[in-house]
Design goal:
Elements: E1 19-24, E2 27-32, H1 37-43, E3 69-70, E4 89-91, H2 95-109, H3 126-133, E5 152-153, E6 156-157, E7 171-173, H4 183-192, E8 197-200, E9 207-210, H5 226-230, E10 236-238, H6 239-244, E11 249-254, E12 263-269, E13 272-278, H7 291-295, E14 310-311, E15 320-321, H8 324-342, E16 347-351, H9 357-371, E17 376-378, H10 379-394, E18 412-416, H11 420-423, H12 425-436, E19 440-444, E20 453-454, E21 457-458, E22 460-462, H13 469-482, H14 488-494, H15 497-507, H16 514-521, H17 525-537, E23 541-545, H18 547-550, H19 555-568, E24 578-581, H20 588-593, E25 600-601, E26 605-606, H21 610-620, H22 632-641, E27 646-650, H23 654-657, H24 661-670, E28 673-678, E29 690-693, E30 702-705, E31 710-714, H25 726-736, H26 746-756, H27 765-771, E32 773-775, E33 819-824, E34 849-852, H28 854-859, E35 867-872, E36 876-883, E37 891-895, E38 923-929, H29 935-947, H30 953-956
Parallel strand pairs: 1-4, 16-17, 16-27, 18-19, 18-23, 19-22, 23-24, 27-28, 28-29, 33-37, 34-36
Antiparallel strand pairs: 1-2, 3-4, 5-6, 7-10, 8-9, 11-12, 12-13, 14-15, 14-29, 20-21, 25-26, 30-31, 31-32, 33-38, 34-37, 35-36, 35-38
Helix pairs in contact: 8-25, 9-25, 9-26, 10-19, 13-16, 13-17, 13-19, 16-17, 22-24
């Protein structure tokens, strides 16, 4: 193995379809119009020296190292900023050019430390490379004059020198090594879109400055790493590289955080990760990353990670470390004993949206074929099951319609109930880049998120009251129908016209107008009408939505309403448009695809179908139960009733992530065997009897499927620290239960998935290795996948319009609970925080805070930073207040990343009418001052500490 080297063409690729032919160093080259001479030369195999140029940002032309000669033109233009033209004759090397380049390099080196042997970038420094490329052998200029290199000059303090900034936990900034090429500044602006960096000063006093000469940690920098990746010297360097040294080989894999599915090069020394570098050929991220994927992988080596199997008879007992064989035998005996005592249906399992497709497939296979029932569910149902239901009803498929590249053709983006800047930051950067190019943005969210207003971007914001999504989307449809903005040609050709007429008559009713619904929604009617007109008439309109849509009692209804809106305006079936759910975890889509629901086999086919069951029974050699099993809430209820007594949970922390924590505690406490399969002793493990240590994404092979249906390889870069990959653990547990599953590699599991799942029929590891990734459906009709769905027609035939009546949630405000709580995520943390809390990311978010409007805070005597009691009908907790006008009066907001807050002790059992997806986003609450953690939090913490005891090895013998 060796390092995977990616070509840097110096300037971005031109999208022009017009071709231009020129001659470079005697060789004819044909490239798209608009291509720079520098990039054309690279296409011809000639690398022109450069320092300020890189193909991730636009040409800048400041370093003057890339000068060339063009016959018939005077001077020596910069090749990065000079576009190709037909018939040009270019020379990249001559005596004059050599002299100029050496002179430029001399000037750079004259104000640069010559500590190459001990420098963190030694072996990976473009300045060093370019000095060699231009043949620099000596420097005529010394350090006698002004310089930025030394803290003291001629015995006096050097005012031009600045100390190294090591405030950021992941990288350092050494101003003495900066050549002011502006690549970091441009990457922050053009790639990330944060504009946190600038060049302060002029001339010799120029330097890179985070914000107003702040530290990197104290500035607006979001630590995405784009600046570090762009830096050609050691000015910005990963601390891991400084500590470990340069990597010696790399492996391409997929990030295990959000549903964007960024591709990375894991750069290694032996089995130690040196750094994660975003892969330019990654079709989801196109070479960009966020703080989590780029830097927050240290949890894989955290001291709290459990590496040995553990068992105990009672949850009050300390854990006892055992061998794998003893753990499997203990677990199997417990589960079989429960079935013998309570019946076949008394046990079940939960799959994970953090594990691979192959692992998820095996868990549901174990439950159906090994346990003999269909009691399988997934956290994906707890977040995006309304997406599956709503889009299946209207379009015929249970997934988003576009790829992320589609956003480059979008003219109007509508974001509903999502905050991509925090939860899907790499996609947000791509979207913001398109917005800076002139596309318009509509944000429908109770909170003024980071997407509403960012540098050079200001959205139309519809700050609705939580729980009124259906009313708002129907009001948008009202405007489109009553003002004649429907794309009638599209609807007549692609959709059922009679169903459309019924829907149009419904939304046109006066009660659905923006003015009539404003009393419910709190949205200004004029702003809503403007948003509807912009979406319907602004060109290619794309809708992106998140958990703020699905996690409601009318989640499925809202998804259907969104689909109606897209069909009515013709915004389906081509690049730049579509309906796109933003999945919260890395394999939410895949866990749904793999048959993790109690009523569906892989490929969303109902378990009651005889023909479908016959296929699985023939391959699995077992008779399957045709009756749908229990969903997670049903499992909990049955456990409390005493009829469901055993649970296998892979890679999921249901105690922290599911609603109504007290109800979950009661259910888990009632069970006789809970098996937790995870990296850490999570909150659910407090009530477990068996702990099976898991493997991280770096330690196994497999695939993830991201939010755009993109199936991507996860590649093993190191041996599992626990000794077994997760898929091997499930196979061994199945064997102990009496079910033989014979696979020697995850590729064989994927072959079985392809044989049984029509949308995956053409998927194989060989194809993924060849193409990099594919988007399902991948089959005979689409052998290389399907980037955009529903081109020319819907999967179901005709698009189906469905009437969406607004029904208010049963969770109401009143005198006791006058405020509405909604929840969300923050950039630096992920889901329940089990991974990110065990990294340096805690420096940005050490605790969950409650956002409250100044008016609501003042009337309750709450000041910024105060402890407050957050109480609902379900329970109460305490946390610190953050007073902000990001939320409207009457609305409060918090995150759910920290178990000591246990935000879900507040949320209720209300759920979506079609899928039982919990209503996390609407909870009636009251806020009052507090002195600190509540009695419940204290008792919970005490129980957790007691439950996590591990018996010393001597006592265990």
């Amino acid at each position: 193995m060796s390092l995977i080297e990616e070509i840097d063409y110096g300037t971005p690729r031109s999208k022009s379809e017009t071709m231009v032919t020129l001659t470079i160093d005697g060789k004819e080259v044909t490239v798209p119009e608009g291509t720079s001479i520098m990039r054309a030369a690279m296409d011809a195999g000639h690398q022109i020296p450069k320092l300020c140029a890189t193909d991730m940002v636009d040409a800048f032309g400041s370093c003057r190292l890339c000068v060339v000669e063009i016959e018939g033109r005077a001077g020596t233009p910069a090749s990065c900023t000079t576009p190709v033209m037909n018939g040009l004759v270019v020379h990249t090397q001559s005596e004059r050019l050599k002299k100029l380049r050496k002179g430029v390099m001399e000037l750079y080196i004259s104000d640069h430390p010559l500590d190459c042997l001990t420098c963190g970038a030694n072996g990976d420094c473009e300045l060093q490379d370019m000095a060699g490329a231009v043949g620099l052998r000596d420097v005529r200029y010394g350090y006698e004059g002004e310089n930025h290199v030394f803290a003291k000059s001629h015995g006096e303090i050097n005012a031009a020198w600045m100390p190294k900034d090591e405030s950021n936990p992941y990288f350092t900034y050494d101003p003495s090594k900066c050549i002011v090429c502006s690549r970091c500044v441009r990457a922050c602006e053009e790639v990330q879109g944060t504009f946190a960096l600038t060049i302060s000063g002029r001339g010799f006093d120029s330097r890179v400055s985070p914000g107003m000469s702040e530290s990197f940690l104290g500035s607006e920098c979001v630590s995405c790493g784009a600046c570090v990746q762009a830096c050609p010297t050691a000015t910005l360097t990963e601390k891991s590289v400084i500590e470990i040294g340069q990597p010696e080989h790399s492996v391409v894999t997929t990030c295990a955080y959000c549903g964007v599915g960024c591709t990375f090069k894991a750069e290694m020394r032996g089995e130690e990760v040196v750094r994660m570098v975003p892969y330019k050929d990654g079709k989801a991220n196109r070479g960009h990353s966020c703080v989590k994927g780029r830097f927050a992988w240290g949890y894989t080596n955290h001291k709290e990670r459990i590496l040995n199997p553990m068992i105990r008879e009672r949850i009050e007992d300390p854990w006892r470390e055992v061998s794998w064989d003893e753990a499997f035998s203990f677990a199997a005996a417990k589960m079989r004993g429960i079935q013998k005592k309570y019946g076949r249906d008394a046990i079940g399992g939960i799959t994970s949206s953090r594990c691979t497709n192959e692992e998820t497939y095996l868990v549901q296979k174990l439950i159906r074929a090994g346990f003999g029932n269909n009691n399988v569910d997934t956290c994906a149902r707890v977040c995006h099951s309304p997406t599956g239901y709503g889009l299946s009803v209207t379009f015929g498929t249970s997934a988003g319609t576009q790829d992320f590249d589609s956003v480059e053709d979008t003219d109007v983006a509508m974001i509903i109930g999502a905050n991509p800047a925090s939860a899907h930051p790499v996609f947000a950067s791509r979207l913001k880049k398109r917005l800076r190019q002139g596309a318009k943005l509509i944000v429908i969210d109770p909170r003024r998120t980071e997407m509403v207003e960012s540098p050079h971007v200001k959205a139309l914001h519809l700050p609705l009251m939580p729980g009124t999504n259906v009313a708002v989307v129907t009001a948008l449809a009202h405007v489109i129908v009553t003002e004649g903005l429907v794309n009638e040609a599209f609807v007549r050709e692609r959709c059922d016209w009679s169903e459309f007429e019924e829907w149009a008559a419904f939304v046109a009713q006066p009660k659905h107008s923006p003015e009539a619904t404003a009393i419910l929604t709190g949205v200004d009617p004029k702003t809503l009408r403007e948003a509807a007109r912009v979406y319907a008439t602004g060109g290619n309109g794309a809708i992106y939505y998140g958990l703020g849509v699905t996690e409601h009692s009318q989640g499925s209804t809202t998804v259907i309403a969104i689909a109606n809106l897209a069909m009515a305006t013709g915004n389906i079936g081509r690049p730049g448009v579509g309906v796109n759910p933003l999945r919260g975890q890395n394999n939410v889509q895949g866990s749904c695809d793999m048959g993790s629901f109690p009523h569906e086999l892989p490929g969303y086919r109902h378990i009651s179908g005889d023909a479908v069951r016959d296929q699985f029974e023939a391959l699995w050699n077992v008779k399957l139960n045709p009756e749908p099993g229990l969903r997670i809430p049903n499992m909990f209820d049955a456990a409390i009733e005493g009829t469901f007594m055993g649970l296998y949970v892979q890679g999921e922390d249901i105690l922290q992530s599911d609603p109504n924590t007290k109800h979950v505690v009661a259910a888990l406490s009632a069970m006789e065997c809970v098996i937790v399969h995870d990296l850490f002793l999570n909150e659910t493990a407090n009530y477990a009897h068996v702990f099976l240590p898991g493997s991280s994404f770096l330690e196994k092979d497999g695939t993830f499927t991201n939010a755009e249906r993109r199936i991507q390889r996860v590649r093993k870069v190191m041996s599992p620290k626990n000794g077994m990959a997760d898929w091997e653990v499930t196979i061994a547990l199945a064997k102990a239960m009496g079910l033989e599953m014979n696979y020697s590699h995850p590729s064989e599991i994927m072959d079985e998935i392809a044989a049984l799942t029509p949308t995956f029929a053409g998927v194989s590891y060989a194809k993924l290795d060849e193409l990099g990734s594919v988007q399902w459906p991948c089959n005979e009709k689409a052998p290389e996948g399907t980037p955009v769905m529903h081109i020319g027609g819907f999967v179901r035939g005709k698009g189906k319009f469905v009437v969406t009546e607004y029904v208010a949630t049963d969770e109401r405000t009143g005198p006791r609970f006058p405020l509405l709580l909604t929840t969300g995520r923050i950039l630096s943390q992920y889901n329940v925080g089990a991974q990110t809390r065990r990294t340096e990311n805690v420096v940005w978010h050490a605790e969950d805070r409650l956002e409250i409007h100044p008016h609501d805070a003042e009337t309750r005597g709450v000041h910024d930073g105060d402890w407050v009691r957050l109480q609902s009908r379900a329970g109460e907790t305490t946390l610190r207040a953050e007073i902000t006008d990001r939320v409207s009066p009457g609305v409060v907001y918090t995150t759910f990343h920290h178990p000591d807050t246990q935000a879900n002790v507040i949320t209720t059992d209300y759920s979506d009418w079609a899928t039982n997806c919990p209503e996390y986003k609407v909870t009636a609450v009251q806020i009052s001052p507090s002195n600190g953690p509540s009695d419940w939090q204290k008792s919970y913490d005490e129980q957790a500490r007691h439950s996590r005891r591990i018996a010393p090895a001597e006592a265990a013998e």
